[in-house]
Amino acid sequence: MRLVITGDANPLPDMFSHPDHYFSIMTVHPIVGIFGSPYQLVFATFMFLVPFLTKKPLYSVKLANWDRTRSCSRKS
Question: Domain tally for the chain?
Fold first, then answer.
């Protein structure tokens, strides 16, 4: 099967290849890192404290004890 490209071969719209887009991404990237890390810590603290303070059991103990390294290993 042959692939024939007709017309403009640029798969991205013109708005993404404009230099302003590059500099806006460069500006947003550190902001996401700065504000994303504390948000993740607050969310993880909330997810721990709510069941702990309400003395509720975990919804899924199996999911809480899930080990990615074991599930991804291949059995030979």
Answer: 1
